[in-house]
Amino acid sequence: MQNKKVKAYVKKKRIPEKKIIQELCSKYNTIDVTKATKFNHLPLSKFTLKGLAENKYVDMTDIQRQSIGLALQGNDILGAAKTGSGKTLAFLIPVLELLYCKQWSRLDGLGALIITPTRELAYQIYETLRKVGQYHDISAGLIIGGKDLKFERKRMDQCNIVICTPGRLLHHMDENPLFDCINMQILVLDEADRCLDMGFERTMNSIIENLPPKRQTLLFSATQTKSVKDLARLSLKDPLYVSVHEHSTHTTPESLQQSYIVCSLEDKTAMLWSFIRNHLKQKIIVFFSSCKQVKYMHESFCRLRPGISLLALYGTLHQLKRMSIYESFCKKQHAVLFATDIASRGLDFPAVNWVLQMDCPEDVNAYIHRAGRTARFKSCGESLLVLLPSEEIMIEKLKQRKIPINMIKINPSKLQSPHRKLEALLARDVTLKETAQRAFVAYVKSVFLMKDKELFNVHSLDTDAYAKSLGLAIPPRIRFLQRMQKKMLAENSIETGQEETNKISTDSEDNSEQEDRDSSDTSIPNTTTNSEKKLIKKEDLVPLQFDDSDDDDILTIKRKNVDIDGEIPVIEKDETKNKKKPITKVALAKKILRKNIVPNKKTTFDDEGQEVVDSTKTKMSALARQYEDEVESGINIELAKQILREEDQFDKQRFREKIKEKHREEKRKLKAKKIEENDEEEEGASLLKKEDADNDVSEDESSEGEGPDLSWLPDPDKIYGKQRNTDEEESSSSEFEETESEEENLIHRPSKRKLVTQEEHKRKKQKTSNVAHLQADEELALQLLQN
């Protein structure tokens, strides 16, 4: 027998997790930023490294290399880097490692809070976290507006990492008892400058007040804030400013080619249409300043069918639709996305070729974020800024911030104008016309609300030409501008009025002597205010007479300078009082309530002019009416019972009257039927008498003279059979009755008598009368045939 070799399996000693964590934490202070170029070079957990490797994250970017090591050491960081430089992983990896080292579980509650300004950016961060941290035993939640609040509310205490927008987070802090952030370890603000600006100031202040003071804070943005006020609000402890590209030649990515054109407002639509038509095999993002512009341009261009798929992303859309549009644009190779500034920050759209800024951004930071949607992470891209002639100052501001931008000109031969087609579309579709009007007003309003008045001037806009370029034949009213102009005019008139009054006061002091001399004269100079009385000269009053000579001029002056004794005071109307103030809907409603008009109330009046009271709808008893008029809280049950008893008496009386009226109506109908029956019987009797008389006359005539020739008529006995006499019939019927009576006597059974109603009796009478009439007619016909 050969001896079999037996392998000895040696169990590997399992290193406890606490020792692994201690080894990792001990290596944090030995991280060399200059040598670490890959994620493997950093002391990261095996779960994080596995997630990074599976998603092909191998090499680190500059911001990741310089910030991750400092964040792992527990420092507060202000991270600033160009767009598309990988800031998301720069804060997600420290968050995962911190919770892993502290062995955070679901029972520990909230450990990390990541706040972003837009929902799409929060969704993007959440998806990245799911990919990288899939092997960690840590739960994460996406808390954004537009989603199911009840679903979020139940699971808030189970989330270790919460990615959220400021508004929805504050909502949970105020109303959700399950939300608890006492144990929170790290706070992250992505696009920190936008989170801390005026738009989110109150919300962020309320959130920061609820957070624990002992925490680590990470701020990241392409345009990082350095204001002491903002940083003091966050109570940062010795923050480290990590700016990778601060000393670089350009603020924007090197692979981004930037250019601008100067275009008149009315040519913007034609320029955009021509650009899309000439770039059908490209991926383009077009930025506008308002949601209504995006909506109109998307709808109108979809109708025109440029030959490329068009999408629109703006704030007023439902959240699920926004997410589906974001995902579909990411997947498509050739598409155009019309968007507002919600798509300008942080979103990573893959392979975008062009970024068009149709409206001038509010500042340089907004421009940087918009242009940064292309040329992300070593890829190339182009950006085009469309400016009005009054907005060329923006170029100087961009060059001051180290942004290289070149001017280009439009080739007029390739410019295609869709104005006529848009006019035809708006003429057909009323709803599209309304969206165009709203887009027009929204653009003008956005220019008016901009802070930099040196750059944005509303009065320099040619609004009529812009309305025509949108396809509107008549430009809509811009009410907020009209109100502003009225206010300006009113303020100017008040100032000029004060100046005039001052002048008049000085003139009156100087010319006091002249006024005393002219006091005897009949004329008095015009006063300053409209409400005071004016006196008219005698020479000015001219009587008018009719003149029939001229047809054109009906009234002509006959005499001038008529002497009239005394002076006639004329009161001028105050124009300010005559101007009616616009009545609002609220004021109109209050006016109607004061009149105490009851809606849907119908009042009827009798011949004497008194109101007819409907007892079914109104209370009849005095006690009930008094109870209705009183305004008291609650219900007096005893009084209500008493009122019901009194009202019940009126109801019973009304019910009795109804029954009496019903009986009267039935009697009236019976009488009418009897009268009709009597009339019919009398008419039948009269007809029979007339027929008998006519028969007698005809018999006499036949006996006296020759009657009509009836030889051509057929023999009735052959057709109808032999007719028996009425006497025979009567005898046979009497015999039949006698036999019946005899049979009844033999059987000893009483004959059953049926009860007959009045109506059946009447019907029988009518039948017998009809039979009598028929018999009489047949007898007449037989007599005529025999004769």
Describe this structure in words.
Strand 10, helix 13 and strand 11 (335-339) form a beta-alpha-beta unit. This protein has 27 helices and 20 strands. Among the domains are: 17-243, Rossmann fold (3-Layer(aba) Sandwich); 256-469, P-loop containing nucleotide triphosphate hydrolases (Rossmann fold, 3-Layer(aba) Sandwich). The protein is 47% helix and 10% strand. The strands form 5 sheets. It has a 7-stranded parallel β-sheet. Strands 10-11-9-12-13-8-14 form a 7-stranded parallel β-sheet, with helices on both faces. The chain has a two-stranded antiparallel sheet with strand order 15-18. The protein is α/β, with parallel strands linked by helices and 787 residues long. Helix 16 (419-428) crosses helix 17. It is elongated and about 145 Å long. The model is unreliable at 512-554 and 740-753 (pLDDT under 50).
Tell the overall outline. elongated
What is the CATH superfamily of the domain at 17-243?
P-loop containing nucleotide triphosphate hydrolases
**CATH architectural grouping of the domain at 17-243:** 3-Layer(aba) Sandwich
Helix content: 40-55%
The CATH topology label of the domain at 17-243 is: Rossmann fold
In the predicted model, the low-confidence regions spanning at least 5 consecutive residues are 512-554, 740-753
Computed structural class: alpha/beta
Mean pLDDT: 80
Radius of gyration: 52 Å
> How would a crystallographer describe the biggest sheet?
7 strands, parallel
What's the total helix number?
A: 27
User: Largest sheet, order of strands side by side?
Assistant: 3-4-2-5-6-1-7
Number of strands: 20
Instruction: Estimate what percentage of residues fall within beta strands.
Output: 5-15%
CATH class of the domain at 17-243: Alpha Beta
Distance between the termini: 152 Å
